[in-house]
Amino acid sequence: MDTTGAGALIKALEDVGCEVIFGMPGGAILPAYDPLYDSKIRHVLVRHEQGAGHAAQGYAQATGRVGVCMATSGPGATNLVTPLADAYMDSVPIVAITGQVARSVIGTDAFQEADIRSITLPITKHSFQVHDPADIPRVIAEAFMLASSGRPGPVLVDLPKDVLATATTYTPPKLALPPRPVLSPVQIRNAAQLIGSSKRPVFYVGGGVIRSGAAQELRKLAERTGIPVVTTLMARGAFPDSHPLHLGMPGMHGTVPAVAALQRADLLIALGTRFDDRVTGLLPEFAPHAAVIHADIDPAEISKNRKADVGIVGDCRDVMAALSAVITRKTDLTEWWNYLGGLVTTYPLGYDWPADGMLAPQYVIERISKLAGPEAIYTAGVGQHQMWAAQYVRYERPGSFINSGGAGTMGFAVPAAMGAQTGAPDRTVWAIDGDGCFQMTNQELATCAAEGIPIKVAIINNGNLGMVRQWQTLFYEGRYSNTRLGTHQRHPDFVKLADALGCVGLRCEDQSEVDGTILEAMAVRDRPVVVDFVVGQDALVWPMVAAGTGNDEIMAARGIRPLFDEEE
Amino acid sequence: MTRHSLSLLLRNEPGALARIVVLFSSRGVDVESLSLAPAERGDLSRLDVIVDLQPGRTVVQLIKQLGRVVDVKNVVDRTHDEAIELGA
What is the DSSP secondary structure assignment for residue A488, as one 8-state letter? Predict the structure, then answer.
């Protein structure tokens, strides 16, 4: 088929199954937008390229497919840097397509030139700059293959403008996913032996279990063994919150039973997780009595932070299926469950209502979860509201919580919700956002309004950069340097802002109105909705392991250290 | 600091060397010497490096991280060979 580089790009994207691109045109990428005009691929015109990147991430996590974003050269491309870094940290499969200045002027500081390949070297799984239009179909197929196989991640394809404009012949790309790693039978047997002889084992489950689609296998293996499960921030939803074997989220703001399970365990069965510092706390004091089985598709993660006694390189689905096949009997974990069950009863998640009579932020999130249910998709920004969204939404299925875990990118929630809703149009999508985060990326609500993407946004408006304020409360003697945003004084007025962006704007300040407001928001199907939940500014996220301390010092609330005070 | 001598086979692709060098700098690896030359196969290059690792970082970990780079075909730890060549 005779075409141009640009025609080959769009045809190749169609052939690899791309159904939507989040992007913004500009000079260097302009040739690609011409064949896109006639393509069956949907293009969502964002208001800022960062929104395109996060939308691609939200789409990828809601659908399990590769998300695609597109931008022009120079500033268009550099605005994708944050989403690429975010996707790299959280192993999200996205392909970023950027325009580049013409080959003849690359390296001459041409208008809108930026060396985006070099800029993104440490935050992409791989990148391409295409110099021959005939290579475009192969490169697009490879980019999709690399983004989605092994440990998923972001791939950049940089396309000089003249390459897009040059005539070429289209050759359909061959899509060949590389085989999954073959498991070592010896390591599986060693793992099964450790599991069989342990008295205090725990499944430490990470985001890899969601990426590999292994939630069913996890449930089967957990039920077969009766071993308790903890799910990290990236794994919320990988195991049902309603399941009796589930102890919740471990880590800095994890539940006391989940943190205790890791600290007191004699065996960690770590699946698709990377012993991140937010989970381990002070590393030398993490799970001090535990042997470690660590299964991950990325060999570089095994023994990176904590030495594994048994390392298994493989896809979590295969690993758990193999373990299920060799583990036949349940070990007696009565004593272990007696201890953990006691903690579950004594230290449930809980919160106090603000003394000043304002709304409790946790209550708002709890009610959204109750009324929207486990079939909804929840996204979050970064900070207190994110932790409460991880704690107080009840997740029952994988892919229902989409947040920025490793990178901690403020402003993630709204564009990620836009992408998730695009990929899952029949699901209710709630962005649980902070008043600080919301002001970073809310322009994408204009995109949502114009494109008919009816996301719901709950602004947990505490008037401050809440998590930073929390640290100032706890570690800086209440010296609140530069954390007050003025959002309680209506700078801005979020209801008017929502209205101006083409959304329905609602406000809720009283407990008695919370359910009614949520239901009113859910009744709107044709436009995005923004709810300004005005909440108290002094609420703190508990439990908490202070940075730089060991997990044994977890505080269930201020001054209450259940594990530290416990008799061994 | 521990010193290691590594030998890599890289695909002859644009940016392959940059990706390795950026990995060293991102992961806090000190490069003592570095030499790139064509390998026997025309589509590959050989990169010989001597690196210093920070305390607590292992060469096994570095080799695995290098192995993740799409353009890296092979990594060998030659630290021991070097010692033999030097007669140590």
Answer: G
Retrieve residue A24's tokens. Answer: 């913004």
- Domain harbouring A142, CATH code: 3.40.50.970
Are A373 and A517 contained in the same domain? yes
pLDDT(A330) > 70: yes
- Given A290, A316, A346, which residue is the final one in a domain? A346
Strands A42-45 and A229-231: unpaired
Q: B87: buried, middle or exposed (CB in 10 Å: 19+, 13-18, 0-12)?
A: exposed
Q: What is the pLDDT of residues A345-401, one digit of tens each?
A: 999 999 999 998 999 999 999 999 999 999 999 999 999 999 999 999 999 999 999
Residue A352 lies in a domain: no
For A525, half-sphere exposure in the C-beta direction (CA atoms, 13 angstrom radius) is 4
Give the one of B15, B26, B58 whose C-beta lies nearest to A127's C-beta.
Answer: B15
Alpha-carbon distance A138 to A9, whole Å?
10
CA distance A20 to chain B (A): 27
Q: Would A545 be classed as within a structural domain?
A: no
ipTM of the complex: 0.92
Q: What is the pLDDT of residue B84?
A: 59
Cβ proximity of A97 and A26 under 8 Å? no
Interface check B11 vs A, CB under 8 A: no
Closest by Cα among A187, A133, A518 to A323: A187
- Cα–Cα distances (Å) from A155 to A123, A353, A454, in that order, read 9, 46, 29
Asked if A122's CB is within 8 angstroms of B26's CB, the reply is yes
Residue B88 confidence (pLDDT): 46
Output the six-digit token pair for B33. Answer: 């010497």
With helix as H, strand as E and coil as C, how does chain B read?
Answer: CEEEEEEEEEECCCCHHHHHHHHHHHCCCEEEEEEEEECCCCCEEEEEEEEEECCCCCHHHHHHHHHCCCCEEEEEECHHHHHHHCCC
The total number of structural domains in chain A stands at 3
pLDDT per residue over A64-107, tens digit each?
999 999 999 999 999 999 999 999 999 999 999 999 999 999 99
| Strand partners of residue A95 | A68, A155
* DSSP character string of A442-469: TTHHHHHHHHT---EEEEEE-SB-HHHH
Nearest to B22 among A121, A126, A299 (CB): A121
Tell how many helices (H) and how many strands (E) occur in chain B.
3, 4
CB A390 within 8 A of CB A75: no
On whether any CB of chain B is under 8 Å from the CB of A103, the answer is no
Side chain identity at residue A280, one-letter code: T
| pLDDT at residue A256 tops 60 | yes
**CA-based nearest residue to A41, from A32, A49, A50:** A32
Q: Answer yes or no: do A84 and A155 share one domain.
A: yes
Q: Could you tell me the residue range of the domain that residue A266 belongs to?
A: 185-346
Predicted confidence band at A567 (pLDDT cuts at 50, 70, 90)?
Answer: low
Based on the domain organization, do A301 and A379 belong to the same domain? no
Q: Which tokens hold the place of B40?
A: 């026997």
| Length of chain B measured in residues | 88
Tell me what percent of the residues of chain A surpass a pLDDT of 90. 95
The yes-or-no answer on residue A144 being catalytic is: no
Mean pLDDT within A244-253? 98
CB contact under 8 A, A117 and B15: yes
Q: Which amino acid is at B81?
A: D
List the domains of chain B with CATH numbers.
Answer: 2-85 (3.30.70.260)
**Hunting for tokens 């990290």 — which residue is that?**
A232
